[in-house]
Write a structure and sequence with these properties.
Elements (H helix, E strand, L loop, with lengths): L8 H25 L4 H14 L4 H29 L5 H22 L4 H21 L13 H18 L4 H9 L5 H26 L10 E2 L2 E2 H22 L4 H24 L1
Antiparallel strand pairs: 1-2
């Protein structure tokens, strides 16, 4: 256990507790709002790694890689559940998957060359856009009555795959609002987004794992840019708390909840931008 010798027991216990709490928060938000855990896990890990003194050069890479790894089992369970309920559209999935895979490859390769500051900037920018969409989107808004042709749909899939991989999120955060803007029924958009989460997270995790091998200053027990302690502690907490969040969602005002989450994302984005430019 020489790998842990540079860290005090208090530090390691603090890391374990913080990672478990990350899973609790991510699971609650996923259940409350129906959003993928990654949009919560990445910023929480980023701030926790900052507090724990993890080197800025690897901080965001490990947050993104660990988040992608946690999405693999949850996306499998979620997509299976949506398929049984008939809310996963196989034809729509087939249209999007080729572009998404191209995007994931682009994102995974690019992550090996991009600095932590660039990854942070990407996350902060998209998080702010998601927050604004959640806070101010008008009911019934659409860009077109249906998805564009094969080339256009391929570009949409590529965008979803590349940006989701760089951010460490599943497909739902981007695919649900995008598909909804093309008149895709919400339940179909959510179910298809859940399946895209697996298409994104599995190769994305492999990419971050390979890119991080041998890199200095990573947290202890990290395989590439995937922190194994985080993986083992976040997944059970997320899966345990998601049903709790879903039950709470039925007892509170959904619109207020979305606005509060939008505020959380906006503040997280602003904090990341502040850190980049201060």
């Amino acid at each position: 256990m020489d790998i842990l010798s540079d860290y005090s027991l208090t530090w390691l216990l603090g890391l374990a507790l913080a990672l478990m709490l990350t899973g609790v928060v991510a699971g609650l938000m996923a259940g409350l709002l129906g959003v993928g855990g990654g949009i919560v896990i990445v910023p929480v890990l980023y701030h926790l790694f900052t507090l724990l003194g993890i080197d800025e050069a690897v901080r965001m890479h490990v947050a993104v890689g660990t988040s992608l790894a946690t999405i693999i089992p949850t996306s499998i369970m979620s997509s299976r559940a949506h398929y049984r309920k008939g809310s996963l559209n196989p034809e729509l999935l087939r249209q999007l998957v080729p572009g998404v895979i191209v995007g994931v490859v682009i994102g995974a390769v690019a992550s090996g060359y991009l600095s932590g500051e660039v990854l942070t900037g990407v996350f902060a920018t998209i998080a702010m856009l998601v927050a604004l969409n959640m806070a101010f989107k008008k009911e019934g808004f659409c860009l077109a009555e249906r998805l564009p042709g094969a080339a256009g749909t391929g570009l949409i899939g590529t965008f979803i795959g590349a940006v989701s991989t760089l951010m460490g999120i599943g497909g739902g955060t981007l695919s649900v609002p995008i598909l909804s803007a093309f008149r895709t029924p919400m339940h179909t958009a959510v179910g298809t987004g859940a399946a895209l989460g697996l298409v994104i997270s599995l190769p994305g995790t492999i990419g971050f794992l390979i890119n991080g091998i041998g890199v200095e200053a990573r947290p202890p027990l990290s395989l590439g840019y995937v922190n194994l302690i985080g993986l083992c502690l976040i997944i059970p907490a997320t899966m345990k708390m998601a049903p709790v969040g879903a039950r709470i969602a039925h007892a509170i005002n959904a619109r207020l909840l979305r606005q509060l989450f939008a505020l959380f994302l906006a503040l997280t984005s602003a904090r990341m931008f502040y850190g980049l430019f201060s």
